[in-house]
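Weekly structure sync - notes
Attendees: PM, LS, DV (DV joined late)
Agenda: review two folding runs queued last week.

Item 1: First target. Sequence and structure tokens pasted below for the record.
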Amino acid sequence: MMGIFTSLDKEQKQAVGLLSIGTFLEYFDLMLYVHMAVLLNELFFPKTDPHTASLLAAFAFCITYIFRPIGALIFGFIGDYVGRKVTVILTIMFMSLSCVFMANLPTYAQIGITASWIVTICRIVQGMSSMGELTGAQLYLSELIKPPARYSAVALLAFASAIGGAASLAVASFVIYFGFNWRIIFGVGAVIALVGAAGRIFLRETPDFTDAKRQVTASGDPEEETNPFIQEKVDYKTSLALFLMDCMWPLCFYFSYMHCGIILKDSFSYSPEQIIHQNFIVSMVQISTYLLFVFLSYKIYPLKILKVKLLISSVIIMSYLYWLDNLQNELQVLLLQCCIIFFAADASPATSVFYKYFPVLKRFTYISFTYALSRAVVYIITSFGLVYLTKYFGSWGTLIITIPVFTGYILGLWHFEKLEAEQKVLLSSYS
């Protein structure tokens, strides 16, 4: 892997290392509760009938993402007006504080519904801070490094987030299996997040942001309402295209980890420990996938990789109903999970290609808000919708969500391919 980044200078390599480690730590903390929800929901929420329990589980999962758009606007404003560096430091500090609260939070049996509210607030803070984290890190490297190393560097962040999720699954499985105190893990998460924040203090601001701010100053027009650099327009078709593409990954993630987990529990009587263990295997496949993209994106143009993933994903989707209706054992469920994750038609490793079509001084806000909104919308629809869609329509209910999201992804990819073609024509006219 180091051979890919031999062209980078010392500062760029340091940024890749610090941001990758920070992203790993952030997603380790974020996904701890997600993967331990089968255990923690019973501690922080009241015991109810199975249907209400399913809705509470959906609520506990969704609450991390519902307020992400608000976090995107807050941290997007900071990132576009103050700087990228400040944002990636603040987000990881907020994650650390939420872990401190959760590590010391009394359970529902001790303080009643107050525990439910406090853990919900902690999950909201985690979701909002993780929003600024990944987008901030991706933007930082996109603006610091030139292609083709840029594509691999940004793909490395997705790889780091996948490792963070896998590590949280491993820890969750370890804690449940040996009966250790889960509070210790959140305490450790808080400490390592603070270490990550301390390391990011040594980062410098990105050249794109610095140059844009310099141009604002040099223009002699400090007023936001009239300054041409601040008032540069955002193409809303491009924002919509990015939103449609961003919707695909949360759908794949939910189906693979959460929905298949429900199938394992209801159809094969899997315990929480067994579900976490099987999801850990799936996370290993996810890590392998992102590592593969780190290497491929250095040699192959990212949009070409997405087209191949799209083709294979379409085959999986067309056979998805047959798979669901003919699952005979847990190994078949595992195979389905791995196929969905490995060939998920998401935006990686082409995110840095998409980001360049947004104005520098509005880039953080629009990209992070689009990303956050896609997660909030899709996770709400899937986690709550599937409770009723599968109840009334069986496996066919999944298509009501899958087909529109997949169609949107195709339209979004087509839009960016069109922009890339237009840019090539424009550049060739000046050569």
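Item 2: Second target, run right after the first with the same settings.
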Amino acid sequence: MSKLSNIGHALYAGEVSIDFVGRKWLWYAISGVIVVVAVAGLLVRGFNLGIEFQGGVEYQVSMPSGQANQANVTKIRDAVAKEAASAGIDAAASPIVNTSAGNIRVQTEPLNNTEVNEIRSAIARAVPAKDISSDAIGATWGAQVANRALLGLIVFVVLVVFFIWAYFREWKMSVGAIVALAHDLVITVGVYALSGFEVTPATVTGILTILGFSLYDTVVVFDKVRENTKHLARTHQTYAEAANLAVNQTLVRSINTSVVALLPVGALLYVGVVSLGSGALKDLALALFVGMAAGAYSSIFIATPLAVQLKELEPGVRAGDARTLRHRQRREADRYAAVPSYSEDLPLHEPPAGVDGVGREAMAAGPVDEQAEDWQPQETGIGASRSRVPRSTAGERPASRAVSPSAAAKRAQPSRKPRSQRGKR
């Protein structure tokens, strides 16, 4: 744990940095490949719409304890398909049969009353069921759910744009957040299409939920970006460098939040797929799991680099970055320009070897009496030797030439008067 905490501290302090903003084209390429695969799955396989969206008949087969297993599921599927073939019921030729909360659920396309009774009788002959109930579901209710979900999505997107614009006073961050939300939605629906999971009202609920999670993580990163770029001229950093530091500072927090959220959702997904086999829990858990993972990725790799890229198009930001780079070049050209001024707590460092021709071994040869003598090197062919040159004070130093009398010595020199006589002639 101490190593992880040290890494987090180093990321926050800028001692260790991952170039998220500078390598934006790599992240864009990775996201583009994922989105293309998701869209291809959506176009090729399409959604496996549940009975709530396309209508049909649903049978709930109550089984004795421990009898809702895969063997009885296979028996019911074969019995319903055989009955549909013999009776000419095309709507029940390919039934969807799975376990659901200790029962077995059978779904077919819309049937009339006579066909419903025939399929019920076939199920009763196939397995020792305690009770068999049937419900006819029309497609109208599913269409209403889809329309309400689409309306809720549009309202949510509009509110997100205005909220981020009002909070950050920056429409470019709104664009980055909306692109990240679209990225998460496309990946989630693509995974649903590729996995063949049934799309139910619980799926719609999960998709709407992940929008809030993705936005939450993005706002946290944007808030740190705004804090780092508020006084950008004082930090001598470009806008991209300050934003990249913000992403590194929130990286550990984003990872911890995502892992803590994904662990229970992953457990729900496992229980829904393995133990229950079907139901709203599985559909909700898959949408949440994929959406949360995509939201954590997009807030770091998509939203922030895109917002920085749009921000760098502003003339003021470009001028500030150019000024920072010029200052950095001048400082690198004159290495002594960054030497700190003396202070009482200034740390002392040992002079490096070779400074002024004096080697480190020569410096360690013995103490030097600074009051009496000074060490100065004299080149002799190979290496450098030292000779003692006496140090004299200013009063003892001999004049370089004789001092001639000045012409001003013959003029009357001003004298300092007492304070009581100043200003009087």
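Discussion on item 2: The longest helix spans residues 239-276.
Action: LS to circulate a short write-up before next sync.
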